[in-house]
Fold:
Amino acid sequence: MKPIILFLMLCFLAINATAQKRQKQFSLAVVNIQSAMPFGKFAGIFSDQFHPGFEAGIGFNWKSKSKHDWFQEFKVGYFFHRFVQHAIPVYTDFGYRYKVSRRLTSAVMIGAGYLHSIPATAKLKLNKNGEYENNKGIGRIQAVASFGLRVSFMINPKASRPFSIFSQYQQLVQMPFVKSYVPLLPYNEMMIGISRSLKSK
Structure:
């Protein structure tokens, strides 16, 4: 797993250096997550157990035309899956955005990255004295893959730093969760957030 983390870090640094002069956008969103098969829950995200979280990101366009954008985003977040884990995902998305109108856009994206998993319950082991001791540690190194669908609405297109509100339905797959019986842990995720340009036009 360590070579994967090193590879991802090098990719992030290389892409960030390439994107230094591009117009960037910052985003912030609140999240609710449900563990289920991909596209297995939608209404349940709003009515079943609440597994809250948040996510922040920075994105930029690789290529932009009047009706289309190819873009990339770097994201970091946190979510709490009750009785299972605290999770800190750090990943990147590549996406395609279609401009329905001046204000309304839709987008599809796919990504991958790193997820740090911290158990949400006690984890004990038997020591040489026959006593149980804490074995929680600092958590586990995991990988994460993502696929998302987003709709955004720009509040004031004429502003020097316009901001948008967005809703995103996303699939996350955490791996390897437990190699022996649950190697892949899928999540259905709903985000509601805002994004804004970091610099004036």
